[in-house]
Amino acid sequence: MISQVFILSSQGDHLIYKDFRGEAGSDVVNLFYEKVTALTGDQPPVVMRHKDVHFVHVRQGGLYWVATTTADTSPFTIIEFLNRLTALVKDYCGSLSERSVQMNFALIYELLDEVVDYGYIQTTSSDILKNFIQTEAVSSKPFSLFDLSNVGLFGAETQQSKVAPSSAATRPIQSSRDQGGKSEIFVDVIERMLVVIGSNGVLMKADIEGEIKVKCYMPTCSEMRIGLNEEFSIGKSQLRGYGAAVRVDECSFHQAVRLDEFDSLRILRLCPSQGEQTVMQYQLSDDLPSAPPFRLFPTIERDNGGRLLMYMKLRCDLPPKSAGINVSATIPVPKGSVSLSQELSSPDQSAELQPQSRAVVWKIPRFPGGTQLSALFKLEVPGFSSASMLEVGPVSLSFELPKITATGLQIRFLRLSPFQPGPAQRWVRFGMRTFDSDHEVGPGPSEDPVQDCFHWWIHCLLYLSQQDDVCWTESVCCLTS
Amino acid sequence: MPYIGSEDTVRDLRRVLSNPNVQSDQLRYRNTILKVIRLPSLVEYVEQPLTAGLRDRAACVRRVAVLGWAKLHNLQTNSEIDAAVVNELYSLLRDPDPVVMVNCLRALEEILREEGGVAINKPITHHLLNRLKECDIWGQCEVLRILQRYRPQSEDELFNILSLLDVSLISPHPPVMAATLSLFLSLCSGLPAVGLAALERVRGPLLAACGNTSREMQFTALCHIQLLLRSLPGLMGEHYKRFFCGYAEPAYIKQRKIEVLVELVNDDNVAILLDELRGYCTDVNISTAHAAISAIGRIGRSYSDKCLEILTELLGLKQEHITSAVVQTMRDLVWVCPQCSRTVCSAVEGCEAEIQDSQGRHALLWLLGVYGEQVSSVPYTLEVFIDGVRSEASVGVKMELLTATVRLFLCRPAETQDMLGRLLHYCIEEETNMCVSDQALLYYRLLHCGIEETRKVLQCRRSDPSLGVLIGRPAEPINQWSYIFNTLEPLRPGAIETESATIGGSPEHMTFDPKPNNDLSDTLSYSFGKTVRSGESEHVQCPTIFRCSPQSLQAAMQLVNIQTLAFTPPHTLPWRVYLYTNTQNKHSADTCHGTLILGELLYTGEEIQKKSKDEENVGVEARQDKREEEREEDTAEGRSEKERVKKNTAEKGIKVTLKQQPRDEKALKGFLSVLTTVLHALSSE
C-alpha cells in the first residue's frame, strides 16, 4: 500500500506530490529531503524512516522518486513500482529530466490517477493506460536544423534517410497522434560488460549482461517477429556444429513473448504494447567470445624530483570502421597528490586530477578502431613513499561502443505482420555500454633501488562504468529488409 | 491538498452525484468518485452511485466503485458495517475482471479490519489460486500476500497448493518471486525441508535480481540474500563472483556485497576472495575500505595466515584510516585466534604514529597491554602516550592507557615503574574526569595490596583456542527470519546483525564474550537443542580419559570419523568434549541421506556436579519449549533421559549424551560401540 508518491528534483524542489490516502501531511516531503541529504556516504539510502512513515525511493534521471508506505510492505513491489513509474513517465514525456517532468506535470498527475487508486496499484500496462490518458505531452526539444537533414533532396534516397538521429527514440509515445504516420518501432540491443584483466594480461573475470528492448510508437501493433542469429545458443549443452559463435549462459524473456519458433528458428514473436519494454535479457560469464576491445599498457615510475610519472598507452583493437566513444580512463593516484601536468597525443582529449575521488580522469571523446593513444601524466606527490604505490591503480576504463555487441548477437530481421495498418518504420540499433577490462599490471623488478626492496605491484582495471543513459550519436542505423 | 475543493466544486460534485445515471459516462463517474474521498459532507450522495457502480457493465467503473466502498468506510469508521455491501463484495470476487477481484480483496481487508480482514476459506483460496495467472504482477503480489493467512487442512492440499505456486516461485519479476517465497515459507513452517528446497529454487531469480539494472532493486535483493544465507550458508557458494563489486557501484551496495562475500568463503575460493577484498581496502570511500578490512579479519578466523599477510601489507600503506581499521581488526582477530598473536605483535610495532582516531588508539593500547611481554618496544610507545596524556581528549583511550600500563608493569616492572608512577599521579591529581581518576585510584590501591592481587584482577582473560571451531555461525531455522522476509525490515541499516560489530573498546567488554568453560557447555547445549531432535544418554566406564591430551583425543576420534567440536582443557572438572559425526545409511535405499549425531562426553568427578547438570538440562528444555511447541514428545523424552542421568551419576565414569537427527536406532548403537572402544583404548594407554 502506497500512501504518498512524490517526485523531487536533486535540489529538493517539489515537482509532483500526490497523496492517495490522506494519512500523513505534506510536510513529509521536506522531511524526506532533509533526511536524504543528511545521509553520509555509507548509509544505504533506499529505505528511510520517520516515526511511522517509511520512505522508499529510487533515483532516476537525477530526480528522487519517493513513495511513503508502512513497514510491512514488500520492498520489491514498491521499488518495482517506482521503476515502472519512471519508465511510464519516460514513455509519455519522451525523456526523464527535471524539465520534462515540470512541463508535463498535468500528464503525470493524470498517469498517477490511473495507475494508483487509494494507495493500491491498479495497472501499469501501457495498453490499458492509453485508453485513459488524454493529455498530450509537451516536448522540450527546440526546433533544430539537424532534423531536416533526414529529408532527401528532391526525394532522393540518401544514405542519411537510412539513419535516424539519436533523439528519434526519445520522443513521447503519445505525440504520434497528431504527427500522423510516424509509426515507428525501435529495437535496441544493449550489452553491458565487465571484464577484469590481470597484470599478466590474463582474463580474470568477464561478465556480460545484455538486453533487447523494443520501443513501440504505434498505438496498436499487430504481431512482430524478431529473428536472432540462427547459431544463437543458450547454456553449454546446446552447442551446435563447430561451436556456436553466439552463446549465452542464461536467457529470460518478457512474459508476452511467444517462443514457439524460438527453438527451431530463433524467432521471437510478440505483440508489443505502446512504450518501452525489455523483450529479452541474457547473461554470459567467464567466457568471452571475442578479445576485449581495449588494451592498456601502463608504465609507472618515479623521477628524481620525487614526482610520479605515469605513461599510459591505450590501444583500441576494434575493426577500423568502428570506434569507441566517450572513452574515459580513471586512474587512482596516491592520496595527497597535488598537481598534475599532462602530455596528451591529441587536442580533443582532456585529463584532470579529481582530488575528492583521488583519481586522474582521462577523457577521449572518440577513439577509432586500430589506433593507439598515449598520455604522460606527471604528478606531484608530497610525502611519497614506496607504499603509496599500492594506491596507484587499478585503472578503470569506461566507454560506449555503438554498433557492436560483445556476444555477437545480431538481429537478422524484424518483420511486422501483413495486417499492419499503414506502413511502419523499423529501426534497430546495437551497442555495448560497459566494458570492464581490468589490467593488473605487475611491472616486475624495477631499476630503482628504493622500490626494489619492496615487492610492489600496480593493478589496473579497465572499466566501463554503468551510465544511466547511453547517448547515441551517430549510432542508429535502419534495417530496411 | 489537491482534493479539498471550494464551495463551487462541492456543489458541482453533489449535482453530478445526484444524477441517477452517473455511471453511464464511465470516465466522468471515475473522476467524480476519485475526488470525493476527502469530503465527508458528500457521503450521503455517494452511496447510491457506489451501489450502482458495483453492478456496472464496465470493468473500470466496478474497479473504482469497489475501492470507493473502502474509502467510504474509512470516512465514517464508527458506523456499522453494511452486511449487504460486504456480501456483494464477496460475490464480486468472482468478477471476470482480475483487477476488480483484487480490489475486492483490498476493500474487504479495509472494511473488515476489526474482524481480522477478509475471511480466507478453502473455496476462496482455491478460486484465487486458480485465477492467479490472470492477474498482473501487482495483483498476484496482493493475492499471495493475503493467502498467507490460509492454513491448508490436509497435507495433500498443502502440496497441491505448493505445486501450483511453483511457477511463480521462479518468476522473473522480483515482487512476485518474493511474495511467493513468503507464502511458501508461511505455508510450510512445519516442514523445514520443503522450506529449504524452496530457498534453493529461488536462488536463480534472486541472483538475477542482483543483476537488475536498478540499483535499488539490487540492494533489496542483496539484503534478502543475506537473510537466506542465515539458514542456508552454502546457498550461494559457487556464485561468489556475482557478488564482486563493480567499480562504479555506490558504497551501500559494495558494503552489502562485502558482507555477503564473507559468508561465502570456502576452501576453494578463499584465495580469489581475499584477492578481491584486498582491492577494496584502498577504496576511495573510507567506510567501504573499513568494511573490506574487517571482512578480511572475519575471514581470518578460519584462514588466519593469508589474512594476516594481507593486513600486514596494508599497514605498509601508512594511511591513517587504513592503519586504524587494520589495528582494530587485528585486535578482534587476536581475541578469537590467540595463536596469531606473534604475527600481530610484530606487525603493530611502530604504527602508533599513524593512528589518529580514538578507536584505533584504543585498540592499539589494548594489544600493547595484553601482549606487552612479546613486543620489545612497548615501554617506549607507552611513554609517548603517557607524555601526551594531557592533550588526550578521549576518556576511553585514557582508561585503556591506565590498564595497559599497569598490565605492562606486571610483566616488565623495571622499565615501567617510573612512567606508571607519573601516569597515576597525573590521573589522580590533575584529571578532571571522574571515571579516569577513579580507575587510577583503584589501580593505585590495588597495587598497595600486592603484586599477586593485582595480577589476579588484571590478568587478561584469554579466549579458549578451541573456541575457534565454533566461530562459524550455525544455520538458523527459517522461522527465525521468515516473518521479516519481503518487508522493509531487512533493508534497514544494521538489521542483519553482523558478528562483532565492535565500536572501540577492548574485546573483553564486547558482546562476543569469551566463554569460560562453564558457559561453553551452555552455548553448545543450546545449539544441541536447536538442531537435534532425539536424545540418548549412555554411560562409559573409563574415568582416566580426562587426563589425556586433547590432541591425542582428537586424532583418535578422527581415525574413526568422529569430529570433535570443542573440549575443555585436560584435568579440569567438569571435563567435557563435544563431538559430532555423520553416518551414511547404506542399508536402506529409500532414505538416501545419513543421520547426524551430536555427542557430549561429560566427566563429573563427584556427585556435586549432578545438580548443575540437572539445572542445565532444565535450561535447555525451557529454551526448547519456547522455541517450538510441536516438540512435546521430545521434551517428554528429554525428561525420561534426565531421570536416567540421575541414576547414572551415582556411579563414576564418563557420561555420554547423544542426540540424533533423523532418528536411526541402528546407527546410534553402532556409533556408541565405536565411541566406547575408542575411549577405552585411549584410557588404557
Automatic annotation (TrEMBL), chain A:
Subcellular compartments: Membrane, Coated pit
UniProt-listed Pfam families: Adap_comp_sub, Clat_adaptor_s
Membrane is among the record's keywords: yes
KW Protein transport (keyword) present: yes
Gene Ontology biological process terms, A to Z: intracellular protein transport; vesicle-mediated transport
GO cellular component entries: clathrin adaptor complex; clathrin-coated pit
Domain MHD: 182-442
InterPro entries with a match to the protein in the record: Adaptor_comp_med_subunit, AP2_Mu_C_sf, AP_mu_sigma_su, Clathrin_mu, Longin-like_dom_sf, MHD
Gene3D superfamilies with a match to the protein in the record: 3.30.450.60, Mu homology domain, subdomain B
Membrane association type: Peripheral membrane protein
Alphabetical keyword list: Coated pit, Membrane, Protein transport, Transport
Recorded family membership: Belongs to the adaptor complexes medium subunit family.
Protein name, per record: MHD domain-containing protein
Organism: Echeneis naucrates (Live sharksucker)
Automatic annotation (TrEMBL), chain B:
InterPro entries: AP_beta, ARM-like, ARM-type_fold, B-adaptin_app_sub_C, Clathrin/coatomer_adapt-like_N, TBP_dom_sf
This protein's record includes keyword DNA damage: no
Single GO BP term: vesicle-mediated transport
SUPFAM superfamilies referenced in this protein's UniProt entry, alphabetically: ARM repeat
GO terms for cellular component: clathrin adaptor complex; endomembrane system
Region Disordered, annotated ranges: 612-658
Gene3D superfamilies referenced in this protein's UniProt entry, alphabetically: Leucine-rich Repeat Variant (1.25.10.10), TATA-Binding Protein (3.30.310.10)
Membrane topology: Peripheral membrane protein
Cross-referenced SMART domains: B2-adapt-app_C (SM01020)
This protein's UniProt keywords: Membrane, Protein transport, Transport
Comp. bias regions, Basic and acidic residues: 612-629, 636-654
Location in the cell: Endomembrane system
Family: Belongs to the adaptor complexes large subunit family.
Protein name as catalogued: Beta-adaptin appendage C-terminal subdomain domain-containing protein
Gene name for this UniProt entry: ap4b1
